[in-house]
Amino acid sequence: MPPRGGRGVGEACRSGAAHSDAPRAHGVTTFSPGRLLGLSIEGLTSFSVAPLRFASLLGLLLATGAFLFGLSILWETWTTGKSVPGYPSLVVGLMTIGGVQLIMIGIVGEYIGKILSELKARPIYFVAEHSEKRAGAQQDRSAAERSAAE
């Protein structure tokens, strides 16, 4: 089970060891459902730009829906001659503007997400074998230096 808030940094390619959590030592939790909800939203939005991509896709869907609705209103007006004054153009205009705004918010969010990932300066991947070998070699050297100093 991943930790609260989603997957941690660099945990994409790691494998875990089996363990069991100890029971709570004292009292009950002080986290209210509202704070837990806030924590989950923070976990969803801090490690990915997926919500912004969702906004872009929703905007594209809304703009496409507005275009199709506008076409259906034009078709109905041309074929039957019935039209409701003001309503169709207002709805199509509002849906189009809302869709374009969501698309633009998603695009700007993608840029901000890329800037954030560059600012974090995290490595693209971790090489566990080499870092473990180096850590073991450094421990062996420091142990040898300590024994030589004694």
Overview of this structure, please?
The protein has 4 helices and no strands. The chain is an all-alpha fold and 150 residues long. α2 packs antiparallel against α3 (87-120). The protein starts with 32 loop residues before the first helix and ends with a helix.
Instruction: Give the % helix.
Output: 55-70%
Q: Characterize the overall form.
A: elongated
Enumerate how many helices there are, as a single number. 4
Low-confidence stretches: none
Seen as an oligomer or otherwise, the chain set is single chain
The helix-and-strand class reads mainly alpha
Q: What is the H/E order?
A: HHHH
Main sheet: strands, sense, barrel: none
CA-based gyration radius: 28 Å
Distance between the termini: 47 Å
Mean pLDDT, rounded to whole units? 78
Number of strands: 0
Task: Determine the strand fraction and express it as a percent band.
Answer: under 5%
Question: How is the topology of this model organized?
Answer:
Blueprint: H1 33-46, H2 50-80, H3 87-120, H4 128-149
Helix pairs in contact: 2-3
Quick structural summary:
By secondary structure, this protein is an all-alpha fold. The chain is 67% helix and 0% strand.
List keywords for this structure.
67% helix, mainly alpha, 4 helices, 150 residues, single chain
